[in-house]
Records
---
Amino acid sequence: MQIRKTSQLLIAAVALTISPFALAGTTITGAGSTWVYPLISKWAATYAKETGAQINYQAIGSGGGIAQIKSGTVAFGASDMPLKPEELHADHLIQFPTAIAGEDLVVNLPGIKPGQLILSGPVVARIYLGEIKKWNDPAIQALNKGLKLPDMAITVVHRSDGSGTTFTFANYLSKINKTWAEKVGANTSIAWPTGVGGKGNAGVAAYVQRIRGSIGYVEYAYILENHMNYARMFNREGKLLSPSLKGFQAAASHVNFVTAKDFYVILTDQPGATSWPISGCTWEILRVNAPKETNTEVTTFFNWGFEHGQQLAESIGYGPLPENAVTAIKAYWKEKLGI
Amino acid sequence: MSEDRAMEGGGTAAPAAPIPSQVMPRRAWGDLFFRGLTGFTALFLLLVLIAIGVALWREGWDAFRTFGFGFLWSTSWNPVTNQYGALIFIFGTLVSSLLAMLMAVPVSFGIAFFISELAPHWLRQPISSAIELLAGIPSIIFGMWGLLVFAPVFGNLEPWINDHLGKIPGIGRLFQGPPMGIGMLATGIVLGIMIIPFISAIMRDVFLSTPIVLKESAYALGGTTWEVMRHVILPFTRSAVVGGIFLGLGRALGETMAVTFVIGNTDILSASLLMPGNSIAAVLANEFTEATTHLYKSSLLALGFILFVVSFLVLVLAKLLLWRMEKRIGGGVL
C-alpha cells in the first residue's frame, strides 16, 4: 500500500515536472471514466483558452478514477456509476452529475436499414439472456410486422472491459426482466449469460460490423459518429422512439435531482412519453478533506461547464443537465464544501 | 575465478620477497569490483522476479483466502455477486497457447531449416531480415490485424470447417460453432503467427552455429540434407532449440493485447475451438481499470499470480525435458 502510494506520488511528480504548463497557471488533475473523456477534454481546451487553467484528465476508467480520488492523488474522479451515499460518507467523498447521455442497440442484419428494426426492453433482455436465439423468433417478428427477418442465429455482443455503458444497460435490463435482475444484476462488469465481448465502444462496434446477425449496445455519440445500424425502442409507456438527446433529457426530467441524496439517481426506464429508456448520467467525485483551493478550482471548472459549455456538450452528443439540477449542485457544493 | 587468479598470483609471487603491495591488490580490487557489479545485476534480476511473485501473492491473498483452492477450478466469474474463479481463464490461456505452439513450432522449424541449409545465399538475408522485422511488430498490431482482417476471412472459412471437420466423430465437437471468425482457434492462429519470428530466429541462429566440420563429415559419409539435420544438427543444438520453443511458449502464455482482440472475451467454458473464450492476460487487461471492490481486484491479481506460476512451471518442465533428453542420449553430443 505504502509502496503504491509512493509510486503514485512519484508518477504525479514526474508528470508535473515534465508538463510544460505546470508553471504557467493552475493545473487541475482528474481521472476516471473514459465515457466522459471527450466532454472534459473539449471543455478543458476552451476553458484553458479563457482562464489559463489547465485540466489534466486521465481516462483510466471509472474504477480507477474512484480509487485515485480515494487515495487523494487527483483533484476529482469521474465515474459513470454513482456511488451509494453510505460509501461516499464512509470515504469522505461527495459526488455530483455532469452530463446526460444514452445508449442504444445496434445490429448487423442484411437488408435492414438504420432505425428500421424495432425492439422492446423485454425482447432485448431475453436476447441477452440467450432465450431468444434467432432473428425470426415470433417475439421479434411481432414487433416488426412489416419487416422480413432472416432465419439467422443472433450473436450477442457486449463490452469486455468494465464500463459505465454496461452498468446503465444491465441496470435497464434488471428493471425490465426479473430473471435478469436475479441471475445477472447490474455492475460495470457482469457475468454475461451469452455472447462475445469487445473492448470499448470501438470493439463492440467492430464485432457488430463484422459478425452477421449480431446485436450490441453502444453509446449514442458513437452511433452518431459512425452511422451505425441502430434500432428503435419502445419506452416504458409503450411509445416508439429513436435515440436522441431530447429523449435522454426527457428521462432526466423525470428524476428528482433536487431531493435525491448525493444525486444518487438512475435514469433508465423513466416514465414520460418521450423518455428514452436506456439513458444515463456521469458523475464527478471530490474529497471533502481536500484543500479548499483545490476543490474550488474543480467546482469553478464544472460551474463554467454548466454555464458556458452546454452547446459544446450537445455538439458531441451529451445532454445538458436540467436547470434545477444545476441549482441543486451549487447548493450541494455550498453545503458540503462551503464553496 | 578469483581464487584461480589469486593462486596464480601467489605462484608467481612466491619465489620473490614480499610483494610490492600496490600491484596485486589493485588488480584484485578491480576484479572484485567487476565481479560484484555483474553479480549484482544477476542478483537484481532474481530479486525483481521474487518481488513480483511476492507482490502478486500478497495482493491476491484475499481472493485465495476467500475462495480457497476452489478458486483454481471454479468457473464462476461474477463481479456483481463478488464470486470469482480462475478455471475459464487458465483453460483459455493454456488452450490458446497450445494451439499457437502446434502451429508455430513446425513452421518455425521449416523456416529455420530452409534458411540455414537449403536457401540460396542471396535469399538468406532477406528472409532473416523479414523475421526480425516481424519480431519487432507490437502485439496490438497483430490484435488489430486479427480482428479487422483475419477474423472476417476466417469467419468465411468456418462454415466449411463446421461441415467437414465438425462431422468427424469424436473430435468433431472441437470444430462446431457459429461462424464469427473470432474464438479460441483464431486466437491460436494469430498467436502462432506472432511467436513464429521468435522461435525461428533462435532456431536459425543455432542451426547456423553447428560446426561446419560436423556437417561436412556427415555429408561426406553420404548423408542426405534431412539426415544431417536429423542426426547431426538437431542433436547438436537441441537444448537451444527447446529453449527457443519455450521462449515462444512463454510469450504466448502472457500475450495480452493480441489475445484480447480475437479471443471473444466470453467467460464461458466451451469444448469447441470455434467458440469464444477468455485468457488470464486478456481478463486482466479488460477488467483491471474498473475493478471497484477489493475482492475483485484481489482476484484479478490472484489470476496474475497463477499466470506467473504457470509460466514458471512451463520453464521447469522445459528444463526437466531437456535433462531427460541429455540423460537418455548419455551426456549429449559434445
Note: Strands of chain B lie at 77-78, 83-84.
---
Amino acid sequence: MGEEQKIRVLMAIPGFDGHWRGAATVTAALRDAGMEVVFVGQQQPDAIAEAAIEEDVNVVGLSLYAAGHLRLVNKVINALAERGGKDKLVIVGGTIPQPDIPKLKALGVGEVFPAGSPVEEIVDYVKKCNR
Amino acid sequence: MKMFDEKKIEELKKKEFEWMDRTKNDPGAEKVLLGGSGIPLKRIYTPSDIADMDYERDINFPGVAPYTRGIYPTMYRGKLWTIRQFSGFNTPEETNKRFKYEYESGQTGFSIAFDSVTESGIDSDDPRAKDDVGAGGVHVDYLGDMEAMFADLPIDRVTTSVTISPWPAIPITATYFNMAKDRGIPLSELDGTTQNDFLLFTCCCHLIDQVPPHNLIRFCVDLVEWCAQNVPKWHPVSFASYNYRENGITAYQELGFLFANEIAYIEEELKRDRLKIDDFAPVFSYHLSSHNDFFEEIAKFRAARRMQYKLMKERYGAKNPKAYLLRFHVQTAGSTLVYHQPLNNAVRVAYQALAAAIGGVQSMHATSYDEPVCLPTDQSVLLSIRTQQILQNDMNIPAVADPLGGSYYVEWLTNEIEERAWEYLQKIEDRGGLVNCVESGWVHREFFRAMNDHLREIKSGEKKIVGENCFRMDYEPYEIPIFHPNPEDTLDIQIKKIERLRKERDNKKVERLLDELKVVTERYENVVPTVMKTIKAGATIGEVCDVWRDVYGIWKIPLPV
C-alpha cells in the first residue's frame, strides 16, 4: 500500500454485547495513527461483513466481551468469505481466554489483543500488515 | 462543635510551613503526586487542613445526620454487609445450580447477571438473538424462567438483586414478584432490589433497540412509584455509579453522575404530582465502585453519604429519615483488573473490598480475579466469597464503625471529593439535567474523553499498573482454570420453552392484555399493574417491550466515536 493511501478499518461489536470502551478507544488510537476508521458499534455478523465490503476496508476489528467470541468471530469470517472479503485482515480484542487465541487464529484471525493490550501494539500490528 | 482552636491552628500553620521549608530538599519532597482522580496531594495532612470542621455538623455519629460515619448506629455489629456475587449464564436452570453453589458457600444474597438479549427486552426466538442467548449472562423469556432460576432457593430469607436494565426491568421484576406471590410471600414483605438504572443502560452498556431517554426515564420511575406504594421493602432502583466509573471517570465524577441520576428520577416523579419525596425516596438504593486509590475510595463513600443527606434535606426538604440514608452495594472495579498474571487480581480485589468494608458498605460483590479472562469459574467465585468472609471474620473489621474517621487526610479528602462532586453535578444541571445530557451525547463525550485519558496515562507511565505497564513478563506465570459456559444449547432450550408457552397459555388473553398495556402506556398511567397481569398470563419479556417500542420508537445512540 502506498504511503499516501490511508489504511481503512471497520470497527464493530458483533451481536448484542454492550461493552463499547474497548472498541471506542482502539478506534481513537487507530485514527490518531492516521487511519480511516468506520465505527459501526453493535451489529450482526452479516451486517459487519456487508459494511466491510461496502466501506472497502483493509482491516476488520472485532471487540467481544461476552464469551461469544469463537462463535461470532467464525460467523463474521464466513460472512466475509461469502462476499469475497477473504483478504481482509481480521483482528480481535476483548475478554479472550489464552487457550482460545490459537483457536481464533485457526479460524483466520490475524491477531488477538486481549483487554488491556497496549494500543500501540495494535497500531503497529495493523501498520505492519498493511505495508 | 468546632474541632480545633483557631489560635492553635494559626500556630500550627506556621510550624507546618517551617517544616515544609526545612525539609524541602529531602528525597521526594519536590514530587508532585496526584490521587487516583487527579487531586494534588500534600506530603502530610494536619488539623490545619480540616480547621473549619465541626464534628456534629460534618461527621457526627453513625446513624445520625449527616451520616458521614455510617447509616446505622451499630453498623456491622448489627448487620454484616450482604455477600452478593453477580452471576448468571446460559439457561435459568444452569444459573440455579450456580446460585445453589454460592448459597452453600455462605453467600447471603443473590444478584442476577442477565445476557444482553434479555437486557435489551428481546426474546430468544428473535433471529438476531441466536448468537447471544445465554452468553455472558442468563436468559429469561417469561415467568417460568424466573421460577426455574430460583427453584429451591429461599427468596423469603435471602434477598436478590434483579440486575436489569430499566424498561425490561418492569416485566422481569414482574416475574420475580409473581413468583413470590405464587410461593405465598406477600409483596408487602418481599425484600430485594431491581437495578433499573437510567444512566447505565443509555451510556455505559449499550442496548439494541432501546426507547429514547426521555421515554426511558418514565419507565424507570413507573417501577419506583409502584413499588414505593406496593412493595415497600423492595428497592426498585439501584443507582449504579459503579458502571459509570467503569468508563474511566474520576471518583468525584462518579458521585456527580450518581446524584444527577437520582435527581432525574426525583424530578420525573415530582412533576407527576402523585407522590411526595418522603413517599418514594426511602426506597432508593445505590451501587458504587471500589476502585484503586484506597483512601480516596473510602473518602468517596463517606462523602456520598453526606451528600445524600444534604440533597434530601436541604434541596428536597425530605422529613422521613429513611430518605437521608445512602444504603449502598459495592462492586470492586472490574476495569482495574489485568489480563496478564491474573492471580494478581485477587490481591487488588481484596484491597478494594477492604476499602468498601472500611467505607461502611451494606452489600458487596468482590470481583473474581479471572474476570478479564473469562466468566468466573466456581473456584474464583468461591475465592470472592471467601475474600469477604475473611474481612468479616478474621480481620476484626466489623467491631468499630468508620475507623478512619478523624484521620486528617481522610477527612480532608472526604471534603475535597464532596466539593468536586457538587461542582461536577452543577455542570450537568447547567446543561439541563441528566436526561438532556444523555440525549445530547454530552455524557458519551465525557466518558469517551475519560477512556482516552486513562489510556494516555497508562502509555505515559503516569499511572502504573502492575502486569500492564510495569513488571510485565514475557510468559504467563500462573496457570488458571478457564470457564467455558458453552451457551450453544441455551438457544434451543429457550426456544422450545417459548413454543410450549405459546401453546399452553391463553393467547387471546395475552393479546388483550398487551393491547391494554399499549393504552395505559399512551395515557401515561403507571404501567406496572398491567405488566404484572400480562406476565402472569404468560406474556414474554419481548412481547411487553415490543409494545413500548411501538409506542416510542427506537433511540439512536449519540456515539462520539
Note: The helical segments of chain A are 21-32, 45-54, 69-82, 100-107, 119-129.
---
Amino acid sequence: MIKVLFFARLQEEFGKESVEIDKSGWTVEALKDWLEKEYHLTGVTQTMTAVNEEFTDDHYILAEGDTIALIPPVSGG
Amino acid sequence: MTETYFELTEQPILTESVIEKVKRREAGAITTFIGTVREFTNEKRTLKLEYQAYVSMAEKKLSDIGDEVQEKWPDAIIAITHRIGTLHISDAAVVIAVSSPHRKTAYEANEYIIHRIKEVVPIWKKEFWEDGTSWVGDQLETTPYPEGAPWKGDSHD
C-alpha cells in the first residue's frame, strides 16, 4: 500500500489527513491525476511532492510502503 | 549532544533559549531573527493564525538548511525554532539565532535561513481574517511547481 498525506487546503478539501491506496508502480504524476479525479480535489497537479520525507519529482515511481505527501506551497516563517 | 538545534513546538518560543544554543567563546556576533504575527496585511486585519506542519519532514528540512549554512559559512552555528498551532498578534512564529566570529556571516546566514524556510520547509499558515479564512501560499493563487519539486538550494544569492 501507498500512504498519501494531505496538508493545509488539500487536507480540508479531502476531509482527512491521509488515505492508504494500492498504487505501487504508478508514477507520482499518474497518482496526482487519479487523486484529483477520484476525490474531486483541486490543484493537486500543481503541488510539490515528498516521498518518505524527501522532495521528489513527478516521474518518481511509487514503491510498496512509500509515504507520499502532497505539499502545497509552504508559508512558514 | 542533548540539545535540539532544529525544532517545532506548540509552546510559546523562548527567544533567549534559542540564543543560548548558539552562544560560544569563539563568537563575536549573534544575530536573532524573530518572525512575528502581523495584524494588518494591506487593509486586511488578521485576528489569529494557525500554523500546521508535516512535523517530521519539517524538522528534517530545518536540519538540511543547517547543512547548507555549514557549507556556505563554515564558522556559523545556528538554531531554529518554529512554532505551530494557534498564534495571536505579535506572537513569535519563528526564532532563528546565528553565531559567528564576525558579524557579516551572522547577518547573511540568518537572512538566508528565513528565505529557505519560506521555500522548502513544509509548514503552512492559515489566516483568520475578520471576514473569513485562507491558507497562505495556496497554489491556486501563487506560482505552481511544474516539476513537483522545489528548487534545490545553493547557487542562490
Note: Chain A has one domain: 2-71.
